[in-house]
Amino acid sequence: MSDCIFCKIIKSEIPSKKIYEDEKVLAFYDISPEAPVHFLVIPKEHIVSANDITEKNAEVVSHIFVVINKIARELKINETGYRIVNNCGEQGGQTVGHMHFHVLGARDMKWPPG
């Protein structure tokens, strides 16, 4: 998708502070962090939202969670806990039309989230 900010980050057209990258996903720090540790993990395939997960592309979601686990261990937030957030659709708070998962850690999380 030519106007998608995350697709541009994947193509290195927009810089990001990358944490992890492989053939399926990219992880990078959020530019407006809401916690001391706040990064995003996105599929390289343009999937608009969780509403667009199909049998054909579902494997990337499990891979994203494996990557989150790996990064959480490297950043040592697995020891104290962290939150994984996926916003789906306008009322769900999704502001970028490319499925992504926020990972927030290194502070106490409140409930309800907002």
TrEMBL record:
SUPFAM superfamilies: HIT-like. Gene3D superfamilies: HIT-like. GO terms for molecular function: catalytic activity. Residues 5-114 form the HIT domain. InterPro entries: Histidine_triad_CS (IPR019808), Histidine_triad_HIT (IPR001310), HIT-like (IPR011146), HIT-like_sf (IPR036265). The active site is at H100. It holds the Pfam family HIT. A motif (Histidine triad motif) lies at residues 98-102. This is Histidine triad nucleotide-binding protein. It comes from Clostridium lentum.
